[in-house]
Backbone:
């Protein structure tokens, strides 16, 4: 019996065939396919005629095996055989059929007698086709060894078969790396995959299952296979250690399949068992590692079981994979367990804490060498590596035994058992002993090897757990003994340490609190200083602007102007007060401010302080009252300078934060003690905006402001109330405040006074009442210029000044009113309302304003289609680079910082007006041209584009151009704006009235229509003229030629 290959390149131990007796022959089948088992059936030749024997020779052999025949019959039979042999030798090369008389139970591989014709042949399956000149081929070879088929991509294989009289029913089992169609005697039996002459349409398919093969006994058959190679498969991957056999055609007797199927079921059970055990062990060791991270052996063991599980899953998936692309992935997955022995060695290295020397790295490197694909001639190189890792494991166990390490004997037994099982299995395998061919014995060896290492680890873990428990018990006993002996000492030490810890904790807590307080104070001080500097900068720059600009103008014009000089004096005095307040705070902080007493009438003094603010209160529409409640009319000793600063700051704040129509009341009442007046109770009540309860504790802090945003309604530095509080404290008085948002604020002060004695040598009241300093509102000298002024029939450009400082706003109006139609607004909200109704050409705006700041106003202007053409100049005390960038990002056209030069402001405004006029002239010039001329102009000046508002108007006119009724009112309704706004918008953009724009647009379209071939009547109707004659008059008035002349000029000069 000839020896053939023992295993096929598929699953290692799973043998499963699927067979359904009800399958019909000669019908294309595509049933559930399961791969071939591990045991490859040998192409035995016992009882089978070889392909080189003819059919007649086969018959002759059968006759010899029968009972003796008469002599004359044997002579005739021999003569016939001789004549046949002579005919065959003289004829053309004939195709020698494969003779099948019987098939062994372990299968027969159709390997010889095949002929190949590359390329597609429509008659390839026909029994009449002459295939004697076809190329002899062994289709079981790796497809990479068949260049004829690879180059053609498609071809035909044919095999002539002669069956004997006793041939049993057969099944075929096909393994292939191509797509195929199977024909028997010209009839299609099966199609596996998709065969096509187009390589892109080929789909390779490996059935790996059993199918019926309907051969009739004692007859000749032609088996034809139409095969095709699928591109992009692994045909050209010569580096793969992968069996890419083209076609392996196996024959089996039908009756052997039921005997093999139970083994396949058990194989599946065993595979499932192994996968489950590997997964459980992976979870177990991974959990142990996360519980005890110092024991890395559990991590290595978890990795080992993970790779083993992946390899087992890949082999298990091999039974259900038919696509060649997926099978190569399964092949790689099944190769991953090559690293398992390395992880076994690594696990024991970690378990015994061995140093990783050169033998360890040699073992790890040998695994990499084993993964290198080797041809069949060099497969022997991997055999020593297979034994190197078990031998290394034995060496480790012997070293551990020598060192008397815990669990070393168990590991040594495991290593020797594993190696012994491996050697015994290999001997049985290579000697081909009959007993080893039994599946149960094979699986028994494998299962024993598989469970050997997990059982060893489990025993080691149990021993480790027992040892640890024993060590813990011993340690607990030692601890109990030591604790009993040293209990008194420990208690004493703990008490001492506790006392020391408490002291340290108290010290640390105190120091920490001090550090936190200091840090908070420093942080608050830094914030206060930053806020103060910002506020002070704003407070200084506005008066400086109102001082420098008028003075520069007066110097330039060399004239005297009382209004401007009053404005300069007022703002210079305002700066002086701010500076004096800062100096007073510095003196108070350094304790350098003395108390300067004098004698005088307290009530008279307070009344004069209130009178200072009477005019400003009337201008703002506030009722200012002064009341005296039983205060004696006599002289008392008090510090008039400090009283003046206190009262002026309080009354000024009350008027500042009280809106028009409110009331401010100052009431004085005596404070008696032992029959003498020792102080004055000052009560200041206003009906202003009030303060929230959480803000009241901070109102007397230096530089604190209730509203620190850029949209606050009132300016200030946060100095006044802080100065009042410290002055009251310097005089020995008290101050408190009560307030409610929306209701008002009340200040209660108690200022001490002394009665004048005969021995007192103090100066009498010599104070002078200062001029009014708060709330002075200048009447605009240019109020008459706020109405529209026309010059030479052309409206002046309009300008809007948005500034919360009334004096600066009045000054700017006065400087710009002569050149522009000037509007003014006290904040951004009022400015936006004026912009929507008046549509000014230029907007000059401050940044820090109540209700709406300059940034938000600029964003609204540039985001609105009706106002985005308006130029915006930001004029503010914020000089930081970030503030400039934010303004420009919102769309501001220019930015000036206070204090500023009026000449520079006028020049910048004039430049913006000039730019708007030039842009309007460009739009008007482009509008007057035809479409072709306008396009040519855009090519010359590509950076200029039409305004979106004008494009919108042109679109509306295009839609209703033939409607003669459309006019200015219709256009205003379509754009959702009134006539005045529409007029100002269009006038600012294109310097035309809306009516002129509609009329000129009709005429421009009319010129285009005339130029494109329309006559005068058609054109007049299309552009909305009811009468051609009227159209002719209007057209001639605009183009200086009649429509007919225009058409003629276009024909003459196209």
Residues:
């Amino acid at each position: 019996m000839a020896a053939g290959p023992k295993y096929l390149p598929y699953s290692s131990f799973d043998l499963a065939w699927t067979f359904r007796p009800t399958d019909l022959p000669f019908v294309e089948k595509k049933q559930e396919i399961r791969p071939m088992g591990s045991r490859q059936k040998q192409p035995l030749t016992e009882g089978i005629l070889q392909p080189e024997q003819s059919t007649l020779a086969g018959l002759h052999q059968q006759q010899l095996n029968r009972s003796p025949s008469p002599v004359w019959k044997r002579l005739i039979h021999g003569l016939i055989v001789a004549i046949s042999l002579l005919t065959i030798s003289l004829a053309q090369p004939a195709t020698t059929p494969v003779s099948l008389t019987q098939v062994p139970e372990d299968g027969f591989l159709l390997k010889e007698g095949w002929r190949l014709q590359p390329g597609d042949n429509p008659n390839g399956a026909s029994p009449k086709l002459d295939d004697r000149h076809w190329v002899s081929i062994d289709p079981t070879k790796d497809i990479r060894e068949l260049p004829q088929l690879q180059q053609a991509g498609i071809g035909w294989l044919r095999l002539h078969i002669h069956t004997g009289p006793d041939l049993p029913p057969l099944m075929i089992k096909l393994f292939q790396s191509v797509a195929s169609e199977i024909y028997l005697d010209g009839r299609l039996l099966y199609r596996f995959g998709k065969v096509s002459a187009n390589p892109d349409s080929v789909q390779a398919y490996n059935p790996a299952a059993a199918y019926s093969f309907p051969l009739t006994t004692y007859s000749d058959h032609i088996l034809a296979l139409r095969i095709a190679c699928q591109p992009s498969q692994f045909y050209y991957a010569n580096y793969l250690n992968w069996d890419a056999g083209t076609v392996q055609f196996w024959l089996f007797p039908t009756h052997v399949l039921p005997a093999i199927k139970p083994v396949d079921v058990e194989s599946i059970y065993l595979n499932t068992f192994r996968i489950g055990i590997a997964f459980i062990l992976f979870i177990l060791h991974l959990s142990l590692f996360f519980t005890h991270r110092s024991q890395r052996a559990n991590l290595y063991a978890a990795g080992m079981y993970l790779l083993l599980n992946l390899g087992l899953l890949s082999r298990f998936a091999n039974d259900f994979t038919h696509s060649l692309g997926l099978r190569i992935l399964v092949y790689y997955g099944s190769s991953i367990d090559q690293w398992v022995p390395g992880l076994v060695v690594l696990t024991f290295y970690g378990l015994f804490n061995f140093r990783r020397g050169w033998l360890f790295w040699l073992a790890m490197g040998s695994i990499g060498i084993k993964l290198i694909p080797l041809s069949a001639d060099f497969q022997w190189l991997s055999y020593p590596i297979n034994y190197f890792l078990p031998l290394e494991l034995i060496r480790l166990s012997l070293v551990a035994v020598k060192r008397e390490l815990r669990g070393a004997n168990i590991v040594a037994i495991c290593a020797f058992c594993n190696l012994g099982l491996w050697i015994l299995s290999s001997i049985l395998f290579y000697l081909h002993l009959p007993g080893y061919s039994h599946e149960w014995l094979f699986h028994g060896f494998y299962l024993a090897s598989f469970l050997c290492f997990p059982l060893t680890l489990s025993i080691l873990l149990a021993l480790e757990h027992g040892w640890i428990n024993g060590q813990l018990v011993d340690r607990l006993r030692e601890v109990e003994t030591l604790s009993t002996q040293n209990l008194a000492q420990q208690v004493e030490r703990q008490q001492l340490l506790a006392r020391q810890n408490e002291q340290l904790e108290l010290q640390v807590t105190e120091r920490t609190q001090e550090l936190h307080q200091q840090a908070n104070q420093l942080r608050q001080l830094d914030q206060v200083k930053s806020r103060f500097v910002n506020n002070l900068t704003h407070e200084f720059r506005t008066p400086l602007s109102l001082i420098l600009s008028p003075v520069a103008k007066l110097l330039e014009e060399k004239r005297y102007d009382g209004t401007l000089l009053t404005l300069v004096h007022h703002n210079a005095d305002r700066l002086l007060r701010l500076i004096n307040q800062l100096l007073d705070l510095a003196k108070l902080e350094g304790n350098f401010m003395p108390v300067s007493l004098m004698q005088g009438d307290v009530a008279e003094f307070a009344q004069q302080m209130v009178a200072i603010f009477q005019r400003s209160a009337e201008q703002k529409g506030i009722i200012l009252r002064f009341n005296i409640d039983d205060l004696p009319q006599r002289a008392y000793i008090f510090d008039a300078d400090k009283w003046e600063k206190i009262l002026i700051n309080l009354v000024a704040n009350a008027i500042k934060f009280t809106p028009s129509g409110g009331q401010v009341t100052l009431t004085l009442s005596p404070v008696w003690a032992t029959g003498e007046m020792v102080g004055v109770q000052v009560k200041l009540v206003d009906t202003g905006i009030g303060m929230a309860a959480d803000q009241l504790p901070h109102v007397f802090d230096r530089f604190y402001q209730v509203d620190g945003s850029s949209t606050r309604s009132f300016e200030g530095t946060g100095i006044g109330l802080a100065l009042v509080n410290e002055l009251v404290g310097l005089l020995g008085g008290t101050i408190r405040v009560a307030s409610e948002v929306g209701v008002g604020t009340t200040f209660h002060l108690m200022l001490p006074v002394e009665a004048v004695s005969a021995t007192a040598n103090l100066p009498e009241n010599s104070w002078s009442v200062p001029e009014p300093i708060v709330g002075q509102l200048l009447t605009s000298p240019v109020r008459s210029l706020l109405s529209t002024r026309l010059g030479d029939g052309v409206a002046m450009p309009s300008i809007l000044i948005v500034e919360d400082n009334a004096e600066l706003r009045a000054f700017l109006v006065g400087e710009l009113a002569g050149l522009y139609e000037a509007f003014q607004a006290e904040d951004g909200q009022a400015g936006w309302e004026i912009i929507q109704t008046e549509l000014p050409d230029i907007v000059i705006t401050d940044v820090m304003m109540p209700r709406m700041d300059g940034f938000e106003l600029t964003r609204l202007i540039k985001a609105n289609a009706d106002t985005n053409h308006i130029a915006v100049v930001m004029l503010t005390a914020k000089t930081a680079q970030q503030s400039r960038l934010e303004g420009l990002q919102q769309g501001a056209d220019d930015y000036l910082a206070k204090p500023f030069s009026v000449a520079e402001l006028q020049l910048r405004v004039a430049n913006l007006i000039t730019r708007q006029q030039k842009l309007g002239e460009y739009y008007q010039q482009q509008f007057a041209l035809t479409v072709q001329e306008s396009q040519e102009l855009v090519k010359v000046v590509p950076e200029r584009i039409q305004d979106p508002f004008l494009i919108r108007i042109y679109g509306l006119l295009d839609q209703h151009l033939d409607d003669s009724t459309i006019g200015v009112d219709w256009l205003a309704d379509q754009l959702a704006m009134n006539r005045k706004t529409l007029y100002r918008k269009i006038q600012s953009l294109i310097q035309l009235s809306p009516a002129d724009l509609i009329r000129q647009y009709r005429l421009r379209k009319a010129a285009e229509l005339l130029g494109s071939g329309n006559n005068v009547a058609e054109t007049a109707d299309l552009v909305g003229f009811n009468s051609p004659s009227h159209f002719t008059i209007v057209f001639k008035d605009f183009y200086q030629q009649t429509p007919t002349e225009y058409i003629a000029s276009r024909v003459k000069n196209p």
Summary: The domain at 929-1052 is CATH 1.10.10.60 (Arc Repressor Mutant, subunit A). The chain has five domains: 96-259, 292-469, 595-755, 783-918, 929-1052.
